[in-house]
Design goal:
The chain contains 14 helices and 12 strands. It starts with a strand and ends with a helix. It has helices spanning 16-26, 29-32, 58-70, 88-94, 98-103, 131-134, 167-175, 187-201, 237-248, 256-263, 295-306, 313-317, 322-352, 354-361, and strands at 4-10, 39-43, 76-80, 108-110, 119-122, 139-142, 149-153, 155-159, 163-165, 204-216, 224-234, 274-278.
């Protein structure tokens, strides 16, 4: 397999927009994408509330847009997805994406609105590892995604179900409908399947990853934020995830979605086979991030992974009983944890972190 390339830069608020443009060139975005077609911006709204280290940052979004445009990619469109616990429209406003899209004349579409796109049955050439078992009636994807470039915009953070989360997980929202929670027991295999599907349907794939403020602990929402001042980019979704995971302190061989993607030649997961450009010394850092669980993710793991209850999960998650869990998650995350603890962390970040101060300067 051809050696993959991952670009890494140290950055600061005063130069971050220019650094993202430099980053895109270092990672050879012009070679990764097809100039003749539209490019989808797939931002990461993990939570519709502001929380450091969790969501695509405004500077990541704007810097990536300018990086695309400076290489001639002017036909851009943003696509949001729906989840049972996240409100995309609220996230776009709270996370300050809307003024950026308006400034750069980028339309916003939603993969859950029929007027924007429809879900069509798709038969992958790749022999899927999980999706054919989870969705025996067929695999469905948004028709709008076919034949277009895509740029994923994740952040560097941990995840209670997958250890880390990055470019591979960012495809989860875009390519699966609101029943994506069916796949959680087989989440790693699902991410491999989605990567294979993405490689079949997209004319080009690229990712920028924001580690200006990164998240450790019970992710993907209730993380502990750490200012790390780095940004990454690559056309290889597996390589960028592997490098980010390594920096966080994880072994790529113990991350099944990376290891399996590497074994199936869908990308390069072995750091020894990845060329690092930019601030190359960053790859030798070890942040020693931990993965934890909170009340909601701990309950999910009981049903999806850690106990015999996973064998009867259909009773709880494939029936109207699922709304009990949706209500409980929303109650815990939005009405209890965020109000009691999260808002204080955000306020401290905005007052004391250079990145939090930058966030407050963006218009809403």
């Amino acid at each position: 397999m051809t050696k993959a390339k991952v670009a890494i830069l140290k950055t600061k608020p005063e130069t971050v927009i220019e650094d993202y443009q430099k980053l895109c060139k270092l990672a050879e975005i012009n070679k990764a994408l097809d100039l003749s077609t539209k490019t989808i911006l797939k931002d990461n709204i993990t939570w519709h509330n502001v929380f450091p280290g969790v969501n695509t940052t405004p500077w990541q979004l704007e810097g990536s847009i300018l990086g695309l445009k400076s290489s001639g990619f002017n036909d851009l469109v943003a696509v949001h997805n729906h989840t049972v616990v996240t409100i995309a429209e609220k996230g776009e406003q709270e996370l300050k994406f809307s003024p950026i899209y308006k400034k750069h004349n980028i339309p916003v579409l939603f993969n859950f609105k029929e007027e924007d796109m429809k879900w069509i049955k798709f038969n992958p050439k790749f022999k899927t590892l999980a999706l054919h078992k989870v969705f025996p009636e067929g695999i469905f994807i948004p028709d709008f995604f076919v034949g277009k470039n895509i740029i994923h915009l994740p952040t560097v953070k941990t995840h209670s179900y997958t250890t880390y989360t990055g470019a591979l997980k960012n495809a989860f929202g875009g390519l699966l409908n609101d029943r994506r929670h069916y796949t959680h027991t087989w989440i790693h295999e699902t991410l491999v399947d989605l990567l294979a599907i993405g490689r079949e349907i997209h004319s080009g794939m690229f990712a920028t990853m924001d580690g200006t403020t990164s998240g450790s602990g019970p992710g993907p929402r209730t993380v502990i934020p750490h200012d790390k001042n780095i940004i990454l980019a690559s056309s290889d979704q597996v390589a960028i995830d592997s490098v980010a995971a390594k920096i966080m302190g994880f072994n790529w061989r113990k991350l099944p979605c990376i290891y399996l993607s590497h074994e199936h030649k869908l990308g390069v997961g072995n750091p020894e086979e990845i060329e690092i450009v930019g601030d190359v010394d960053v790859v030798n850092e070890n942040w020693k991030f931990d993965v934890g669980v909170n009340f909601a993710t701990g309950a999910g793991r009981i049903f999806w992974k850690d106990t015999p209850l996973k064998y009867i999960q259909k009773i709880f998650f494939h029936t109207p009983l699922v709304y009990i869990f949706i209500f409980a998650s929303e109650m815990y995350h939005d009405r209890i944890w965020y109000k009691v603890k999260g808002e204080k962390i955000v306020k401290t970040w905005e007052q004391e972190s250079q990145w939090g101060k930058l966030f407050t300067k963006y218009p809403k």
